[in-house]
Amino acid sequence: xxxxxxxxxxxxxxxxxxxxxxxxxxxxSHCVLYKSDCTFQATSRKAxxxxxxxxxxxxxxxxxxxxxxSVDEAQQRIKELxxxxxxxSSSRSDxxxxxxxxxxxxxxASLDLGLELPPQHEVLSGVNKFLATFNTILPLFDPQRLLSxxxxxxxxxxxxxxxxxxxxxxxxADDSSNFNFFLSRVQLAHIQGQVYEAMLSKSPTAxxxxxxxxxxxxxxxxxxxxxxxxxxEFSASAITESGNTNLQRAFGVLYxxxxxxxxxxxxxxxxxxxxxxxxxxxxxxxxxxxxxATPRLPVGWHKLVxxxxxxxxxxxxxxxxxxxxxx
Length: 327
Fold this sequence. Notes:
Among the domains are: 9-40, CD2-Gal4 (Irregular); 187-325, no CATH class. Strands 1-2 form a two-stranded antiparallel ribbon. By secondary structure, the chain is an all-alpha fold. The chain is built from 14 helices and two strands; from the N terminus they run H-H-H-H-H-H-H-H-E-E-H-H-H-H-H-H. Helix 9 runs parallel beside helix 12 (245-266), helix 10 (209-228) runs antiparallel to helix 12 and helix 12 (245-266) runs antiparallel to helix 14 (301-317).
């Protein structure tokens, strides 16, 4: 059976002149330009018979076809991903828009549902594949130790309270009292980790109201216990009165980290989405409407205010160009 003759898309004028025909009706633009009839009666030229490639040319053509197929598949995959992204964006746009200050940390955690980690078996499969392929060429990790964790790295003992070499110890000017500064800083770092896990992380338990209240009370107690272990000779007021530059620098950084934990637990800092707007609304109502209502204070607010006032005096006593406070 002879092959079916393909319909020519170009008119006779465009076909003879070998120019692209736009196919407009009743006459294409070139027929209008040349004032000719737009007909399709001319006999088509016979296509030249291509010889079948052989040898290296055939191999190259096969590789080109394989690459073209891979490119087509990649483009199809990109179109599918773009379609999914469009569907997600349209579904999110249908949700009610919330103000910038209407979303707390826990609410933001519930919105980021698309950022969950893959299952553990998929992660381990990817890690094993990396170790078996790329890591053999560029050995970055030890396969025997990468997936293992030492018990010493999980549970580390506190530094010695009375080190034999006296490392980390601070003394008053008359040597009447001493304090293990390094041990206190390590203990405060542990509390900072608890603050992050309880107040700033996006774990499911952190979004529960009752769990958060328990965490607030627990962290306040940890901060109180940590502060009570510091001798009175090294309190903020005593350090301010001593005039010792080295002690003021060291304890200025230490008490600053302590107050940062207090402010995060009380949600009274500039990064808190609800703190600054609540201050503005309280002042606006007092000025415009004359309404002075009792503000809703967080747990531990009075401690934060008292400790901040003592720290301000210590901070003023420190040189403003001190390297410890230049970030």
